Amino acid sequence: MTQPIAAIAAEPTFDVHGESLTRRTIRRVLRSRVAVACLIVITLFYTVGILAPYVAPYGYSEQNLDLSFDGPSLEHPLGTDRNGRDMLSRVIYATRTTAIVTIATVATGFIVLPVTLGLLAGYRGGTVDWVINRVGEILASMPGLPMLILITATIRPRFNDGVEKVQDWVGWDFLTESAFSDYFIIFLVLSLFGWVGGMRLVRTQVLGLRTSEFVLAARASGASTWRILFQHLLPNVLPLVIVGASASLGGIALTEIGLTFLGVGIQPPHASFGALITDGASRVALDNHPQLLIVPAVAVASLIFAFNLLGDVLNTVVTSRSR
């Protein structure tokens, strides 16, 4: 019988004297075969997505109407859609969109913002803590998905106009061709509502650490606030941040896909799993060509499953170390 995830992640290990908590957590995670398998799947997914223009056999919108709804073949391993577009290439380009949005959103809304604001709120306290928490409470009190849809739909026209003016001024055609506006708006909106939970977690940990001996010693030696925050406190909360960020990746990917499915995410002709699922979700497509929905759905489900399993292992490792 295979061991459960918690048992695999919590196998007894010999801690190295003087080893940092972050390095110890990474070492324990890499000892889990489940975590390593998930990391391989996620790394492959993101590598293929980032290198989409080089690994995709065809362009995302490249058509051949003579091959409409063609079945799997050597030229088209996953078949084609109603316009004769290669499904494998379309999935690869959609993978790139998911990779870009999740990386940008996690970096800003689930690492940089919550870590910086949580460290400040927990260590400084007073007015700084009050302001950060009140802003977080206001954002947390708003209904998530409706606000995402509302903000995305309202700011898109103005932002697109601004991007076009900048493009005409500097001559950067790639701003429009690369769907920069869509990527930026989605990751900005997701980051705006995503930092609150991580900030509260970091703040709670810092409140318990700011009176620790190593912090008091650093303060007595004349260390600056930023040095104390990022050199002494950050390493002690980083494993929790990593767990939170990894757990949020699946939700970010699903939100981007859902916004595109509802028509306010990535806009045609740019690639997205939401657009692929929309194309394959019609009654006619499901009855006659179910692979149009099955192919992108399986790709998304595999990625989300890998994210969830990895998050479970990370959570088990971190909580086992805190006991």
The gist of it:
The protein has 323 residues and is an all-alpha fold. It is built from 14 helices and no strands.
Q: How would you describe what is shown here?
A:
With 323 residues, the chain is an all-alpha fold. It has a single domain, classed as MetI-like fold. It is 75% helix and 0% strand. The protein contains 14 helices and no strands. Helix 5 runs antiparallel to helix 6 and helix 7 crosses helix 9. The two termini are 28 Å apart. 36% of the residues are buried. The N terminus is likely disordered.
The shape, in one word, is globular
CATH homologous superfamily identity:
MetI-like
Which sheet architecture does the biggest sheet show? none
Per DSSP E runs of 2 or more residues, the count of β-strands stands at 0
Strand/helix succession: HHHHHHHHHHHHHH
| CATH structural architecture | Orthogonal Bundle
Q: Percent of residues in helical segments?
A: over 70%
CATH class: Mainly Alpha
Question: Ends: how far apart?
Answer: 28 Å
Gyration radius, in Å: 23 Å
Predict the CATH topology.
MetI-like fold
Q: Topology, please?
A:
Layout: H1 5-9, H2 21-30, H3 33-50, H4 52-55, H5 87-124, H6 126-141, H7 144-170, H8 174-177, H9 180-209, H10 213-220, H11 225-261, H12 273-280, H13 283-288, H14 291-322
Helix pairs in contact: 3-5, 3-14, 5-6, 5-9, 5-11, 6-9, 7-9, 9-11, 10-11, 11-12, 11-14, 12-14
